[in-house]
Model the fold of this input.
Amino acid sequence: MKPKNIYDFHGLRNQAEYQEAHAWDIDHDIPWHLNIDMEKQFLPLDRDSVAFPDASYEQRLVLSQFMGLLVNATIAEMEDVAVKIRDIAWRKALDSYPVNPEMYALGEQFFTEEAKHSQLFKKFNNLFCESNNIDPKELDRLLPKAYGSQFQKAIIKNAKAGGHAFWWVVAMVEEVALLIYQNLYKDRKSVDPLYFQIHKKHFEEESKHTNYAFLMLDLIKTRNKSLKQKVHNKLDLLYSELFSIPWIVSELNRVKLVKDFSEHNEFFKILNSCLPLMQNLSTHELTSRLFVSAPYVSLILNKHHHKLSAATALSHKAISIPRPSPKLSKSHHPKQLNLISESTNEDIWSVA
Done:
């Protein structure tokens, strides 16, 4: 049982020791020998295919694989940024309040694992490029960049001012990572085995340390009762959303750059052929799909998926941007047999 509060010294120490003892190695514990099966999807899509309801089978497969690379890159970017600004957003907070050494130890383990996870997803994406004769720099142009963005600058500015928007973002990313694996697990027979395995390994460690972001939020709330901190407690979640949501939506538009090198590779050529399908949707309809029905993207953007974060926000009385309830479709095109979800009643948590 993971500790639920910052005063459980024994629980915090045991968690840090357990995580360290059960840590996996990128090179030796990931079945890289499987390589990548390009006939398999990465992220199972529903009939809407994000914003491309009229996509062909070939386009759906490429969209599924691109979405998988996009999710890998997004998680890698967020976790990499977390490590880069840890001293500003983490150590400064711990040094500012009386705290037990176990919180430091658990935090060190947390950031060690985050750095490793970022490397894991980058390695898969690089292997994808190598396997498909793709220039990594070209794929990189299509994928999100958090470091140096206005989003990252805003989070650093907030942390330097004594805020904790950083930890709201971390909490969301941690929760989304678990949700993505849960969805992958239900469709694991139709997913590329190597892609599934890297997310399984990621899930194993994420599920062990997800509580740390929430422990940090509770520490900051509990230890500082100043008026300034009360304002941060009330507004920092909103602040994090005002910068993270536009960043995510704007980074999704990077896919349009594929037209610049669509003839360099068959994968890019098919991906580029999907772009005109987007023109069939109005801006309002496209935005609605991203927040309400787009698989995986909706998981990131729509707070209604984030039950742990929502419960914490409620206890902190934190203000958040209102969003519509998600409505993910479960239907699939009848002719796309190997893209149909194979649901299971097995307990996905038992695999960690």
In short: The chain has 14 helices and no strands. The mean pLDDT is 83.
